[in-house]
Write a structure and sequence with these properties.
About 45% of the residues lie in helices and about 10% in strands. It has about 700 residues and is of the alpha/beta class. The strands form two sheets. The chain has a nine-stranded mixed β-sheet, sandwiched between helices. The protein has a four-stranded antiparallel β-sheet with strand order 10-11-12-13, with no helix packed on it. Helix 2 packs parallel to helix 4, helix 4 packs across helix 6 and helix 12 packs antiparallel against helix 13. The longest helix is centred in the N-terminal third of the chain and has 29 residues. It starts with a helix and ends in a 9-residue tail after the last helix.
Length: about 700
């Protein structure tokens, strides 16, 4: 009793308790994911102290029983926040934006088995995260009295917390000026992953809520594009400069001023010059009355467009079949189980260094990258859904580009049509959207229950012959057979093809992964047969890319690669298929490239009129230097790679990269991500539509 009395005599004892609780959570979370020597631990400690102060203020405003109840509730909420962040990262390899994904929380139950599996796999960490929920109620009800504070003490603590917060922000502002520094994360919230690392989970949540509320109120805060930056590959300006908008407008008209720079309507393969459009950026900036739009006009007008090349218009007027393949990795082709997929991967355009980064939003993020040629926002909202719900223009999507040329455009998905609001986004992308619940009947088992995952083969059989009668056509397929969880008891596609993998020298998880991906092989084989039967084999272009790697089962990739990939870029190396039966020999490309490069590459191959400056990815077949960007702002070029966590630089050749060149690349990449977010937030494509 004497100990309890002494504790309750300590001024602001409940404040100390809450500071310790928040510190406990932040330190074990930060230590587990980032270590204790990454340079950002001090920021996390500072914001933990402030968060503890604010929580203790709230729990001292009411009568004692209410304060105690609130203290327990806050402890439980803290536990849930950290547990959700931990499990989300364990499954998807990034952190969750609570504000941006709140509307899709019910869909988390679709991954319930995967979540449960991760709880079991990380039982020790789960126990550590639950421990305060067990201990704190005893302390609250038996040790600390939680009496209502005097107004003077409350006012003092509130002033101290606000003052401490202001000092913390000031300290952030003077730490450093590198791209994506801690102060930039606080001010602009460009990435939930980096905000969690640099400021802590609690402060990231506070900023997430701040930005979500501000955006919902229609705030236009402009864009943070780094001024004076240059394109490190060309040495030309690639960000805001002191050039006037009128000068920029005049300069952007030059590339298309002469007739030979305009794509020929008869034969685009004879065209030369840049892939860009005649856009008056000065007029757009003046008429928009938006700081953000003006910043984007400055930025895009200063970029160097990619040039047309010998492959421009190679597949002009072809039918186009585009497939986003669930969980597909090129390492699967090492198993020799997929003759048709291997054929189209090896006999078309062969991209030796293609990468499929893991984007925020899982499949939806991967779809956005594939279809829009841009990175989705790393937190805050899901870019494809947000853009569609906001009525954004998708002017350069393949569906809209080809629909404008008279193509018949359809999109198919063998999952629920309303999942992630695809019933809104995919029509906006230019498609008649057909999915389970809107034109497709789900496949049922013997008990009349929908099987999971659904069959890609059946989707092709139910749709292709019906929707490919009128040419030219563009069919888009979003598959689902390769979805987690990878075992033979819960995955219908893995169970269906269990026999073809049972003798392979892999773990059960890897064999189940290969088995469910075999349904994609059968679907591709069905497509090829249909094309031959319909006389469309030589005038149809097939594009296939995965939406993401099997994120929750990265060990699968180690087994398929034959060595430990560990936490390297090589885990995201994959296969991009761009193939037509008319190709007489493969075309091999060594340049590094990624999923955001698919749209501009295919647009060029089809000879479409588009502006390469306005798509964040680039035509892989152009003479531009290769660039692969990852969600954490790591990146690869043709000569070196940079890992943002730890700042590691690896050169592919003997020449070292100077700090000056590295800094230019980092600024260049930073502007790419900012512009990608700006396109969505300011509906920028509406200004360039005809």
């Amino acid at each position: 009793m004497k100990i309890i009395e002494r504790i309750n005599q300590i001024p602001f004892n409940s404040t100390i308790l809450f500071i310790l609780i928040v510190l406990y959570y932040e330190l074990i979370f930060h230590g587990y994911h980032f270590g204790m020597t990454d340079g950002y631990l001090a920021n996390t400690v500072l914001f933990s102290i402030i968060a503890g102060c604010f929580l203790s203020i709230v729990t001292s405003l009411f009568p004692r029983p209410v304060n105690r109840s609130l203290a327990v509730i806050f402890t439980i909420l803290l536990a849930l926040i950290f547990i959700i962040q931990f499990l989300y990262h364990a499954v998807f390899n990034n952190y969750i934006s609570f504000w941006g994904t709140l509307q899709y929380s019910s869909q988390a139950m679709d991954n319930f088995d995967t979540i449960l599996l991760n709880i079991k796999q990380h039982a020790g960490m789960m126990l550590l995260l639950v421990l305060p929920v067990i201990i704190v109620p005893f302390l609250v009800w038996k040790v600390f009295d939680f009496r209502r504070r005097t107004w003077r003490n409350t006012l003092f603590l509130t002033a101290a917390a606000i003052g401490g917060y202001g000092i913390s922000i000031f300290l952030l502002s003077i730490q450093d000026s590198r791209p994506y520094n801690a102060y930039e994360m606080y001010q602009y919230y460009t990435s939930v992953d980096m905000t969690v690392e640099r400021l802590g989970v609690c402060e990231a949540l506070a900023i997430d809520l701040r930005e979500g509320i501000a955006d919902s109120l229609g705030r236009d805060n402009g864009l943070y594009l780094i001024q004076g930056s240059t394109d490190p590959a060309t040495g030309k300006n690639s960000a805001q400069t002191s050039t006037s908008l009128s000068d920029i407008s005049d300069s952007t008209k030059d590339p298309t001023a002469e007739d030979d720079h305009k794509p020929s309507t008869e034969d685009n393969r004879t065209a030369s010059g840049p892939n860009c459009m005649d856009i008056d950026f000065a007029q757009i900036a003046a008429e928009s009355d938006s700081e953000g739009v003006s910043s984007l006009c400055d930025y895009f007008s200063s970029l160097t467009p990619t040039n047309k090349n010998e492959y421009t218009g190679m597949f002009q007027n072809y039918n186009v079949i585009w497939i986003t393949a669930e969980g597909f990795s090129g390492y699967a082709l090492n198993s020799d189980l997929y003759p048709t997929l291997s054929m189209v991967a090896e006999e078309g355009f062969v991209f030796e260094n293609y990468y499929s980064p893991l984007w925020y939003g899982s499949t939806l993020g991967g779809e956005y990258a594939n279809l829009m040629g841009s990175m989705p926002k790393n937190g805050g909202y899901l870019s494809l859904s947000h853009a569609a719900q906001s009525g954004n223009s998708f002017a350069f999507s393949m569906g809209n580009q080809l629909k404008g040329l008279g193509y018949h455009t359809y999109a198919f998905h063998n999952n629920t049509n309303t999942y992630y609001d695809r019933n809104i986004s995919h029509p906006a992308l230019g498609y008649t959207f057909i999915a389970n619940g809107s034109g497709l009947e789900p496949q049922l088992n013997q008990y009349e229950n929908a099987i999971w995952p659904q069959s890609d083969l059946v989707m092709i059989q139910d749709t292709f012959d019906t929707y490919s009668k009128e040419e030219p056509y563009h069919l888009y397929y979003l598959t689902v057979s390769g979805h987690v969880i990878y075992n033979f008891s819960e995955n219908a596609m893995s169970y269906k093809h269990m026999d073809i993998t049972e003798n392979l020298p892999y773990s059960e998880t890897t064999r189940a992964y290969l088995a469910c991906q075999y349904e994609l092989e059968l679907a591709m084989s069905e497509l090829i047969d249909e094309l031959k039967e319909n006389g469309q084999y030589d005038n149809t272009l097939i594009v296939l890319a995965g939406d993401h790697v099997p994120y929750n089962n990265m060990d699968v990739l180690d087994e398929l690669a034959g060595y430990e990939l560990e936490d390297t870029f090589e885990a995201y190396k994959s296969s991009l298929i761009i193939w037509s039966g008319s190709m007489e020999e493969p075309v091999r490309i060594d340049k590094v490239c990624s999923s955001i490069d698919i749209l501009p590459t295919v647009s060029n191959l089809l000879g479409l009129e588009y502006d390469s400056r306005l798509i964040i990815g680039q035509d892989i077949l152009s003479d531009s230097e290769g660039l692969v960007m990852f969600a954490d702002r790591s990146f690869m070029t043709d000569t070196f790679s940079y890992r943002s966590s730890g700042g590691e630089v690896l050169c592919t050749g003997e020449d070292e990269i100077s700090e000056e060149i590295l800094s230019e690349w980092k600024r260049f990449v930073a502007n790419k991500f900012t512009a990608a977010d700006g396109i969505t937030e300011y509906n920028f494509y509406q200004y360039v539509e005809d």
